[in-house]
Structures are given as C-alpha cells and as structure tokens.
Amino acid sequence: MRARVEPEDLSGLVGDALGAGCRIVGVDRLRGGSRKGVYRVRLTGSAPASVIVYSWADEENFWPGAAGGDASDPFAPASGLVPFLAARRRLDEIGARVPRLLWADDTERRHPADVAVVEDVADGTLEALLASEPGRARAVLDDLARTLGLMQHHHAARYGRVDLLERGGVALGTSCEQLVLDRALRDVGEVAERDARIAAVRGRLVDRLRELRAQVVPRTAYGLIHGELGPDHVLVSPAGRAVLIDIEGLMHFDAEWEHVFLRLRFRRHYGALSRPGLDPRRLALYALAAHLSLVAGPLRLLDGDFPDRESMRRIAAHDLSEVLTLLP
To answer: What pTM was computed for the model?
Structure first.
C-alpha cells in the first residue's frame, strides 16, 4: 500500500519549481493514478495557489509486476518521466492542450523517483462536467473532437510509442492488427483460467478473433492516439479547453483503437467525438479485443493492493458480459 506523502516530502522540489518564497499548506492525493502518484499541493506566498506533482516511485504503481515495461511493446505499461516528456512535447507541437510543465527531474536529488510539477487545471474533469453541466460540457467535447482530429492526422510511417520513435527505435510486431490479435489471445487464455464462462467459449473466442483479424487490410500510416482516453483523463481549463492527462502511453497507432475506447467510455456522448473514415473491420476486431482487455486488466490489478476494488470488479463483470454478446 502507498505510504502517505507529507508536505515536507515535497517542499524541496516545489521550491525548485516555483522559488523559495512559496510554502506548502496542504497536500491532497488525487483519485486515480494506478501507475503514479498524483498530488495537489496547496501553496501560499506565491502564484499559483496550487500545483500538481507527479511521482513515478515504484511504490506508487499498483500493477503487479508492471514496473519497467518494454517501450518497444505498444501495450506495455508506460510510466516515468521519459515517456511523459516525449508525449507532452508531441502534443504541444500539434496544438493539443496539456498541463503546463513547471519543473521535472530524474536525478532523485529532491525526490526518490522521477518527478514532475505541472499546472493545476483546477476546473475538474470532463467526466464531472458531463454530469453537472452538460451544456458547458458540449463545448469541451467539441474542443476534444478538434484535438482528436489533430492527433488522427499527425501521421507517422511506423507505429509505436512516441518516446521509442523519438529515439529511432522500432516497435514489436508486424502490424497494429496483429499486435491487437496477439494481446487478445493472451487475454482469452488468462481470463479463461479465472472464469468458467470464458473457459466454456474459449475456442469460439479464439476462432472469432482470428476470423476478424483475417478481414483487416494492411495499413502503412498511423496517427497519434492517447490509448486510454476516457472523460476522467480530460481536464477542463478555465477557458473551456479539453486538457489531456495520463499521456505517457501516447503512440502512433490505428485511430480505430482509440475510437473503440472512446465509444466505451463516453457512451451516449461519443457522437460528438466520432469521425468519418474509420475502418469497420478494424473496429470489429478492436472492439472485441478491448472488452477482453477490460476483463483481464482489472482482474490483474486486483492481484495487487489497488484500493478501489469494487470498481474493478464491476468493470470486469460488465466487459465480460460484452465479450459474450459479441460472439456470433
């Protein structure tokens, strides 16, 4: 379980970021952050009145055995300052809104892990706004749709995580669709060992995944995707802009993978984000694979000490039902 972070633990790095005149008056751990600690630090004696601190300490990672994922695998856990900085550089370049970076350090001089201090976009998440002020949320959805368009049309000739491609690296596999198939087959095997309903249809699931994969036509250009873009990963700026967070997994990949996830997470609001030209064959394969991932992932997370266990159980149960409905 994560240790409590006290103001004195962060005072040195916040001073480096904002100057010696600021003083911490409170630290609040924010919800989420299964791979990093996310803290709102309240201040006096300086502007701004608060900042956000990201800490990529090992003890902040709730995923069992997930530290140090292989950057060449697009689906490996993305965590740490290197992928974070690469992702925000790329998003800045194309005009997408992300929290402003105030300070970052990987030397462990002030903190025993990679750490960053960023702008506190304090108007809350798009998820909360959709529930409380749907009229205002519509403008933010429109801005998010604009951002997604910029990302989709920022092409690369190779797929892979942004930090890997920046270094001239090459991602694993032969294609996005083959990577998705291979991952989905692993998820089928993993879930079948835990749930009798999936075990009973394991062969049918494998056949269906292979059938859908065979229908996908090769592709040679890949846009940018966030990878886990739900309304909880979008903050709202005071100007009504959509601000992307949890960006470490930013990669060049098929836009259909992003849109399957968007459709699952935004539900009735997805229409504002949908785009023409998506490949229905990829969407069919990726939808089944995404539901399988949303069963296997939460069950894997429950192997550790993730605190909000009931929410993970609900996600796994819901998506397991969806997997069964997608079988012909």
So the answer is: 0.91
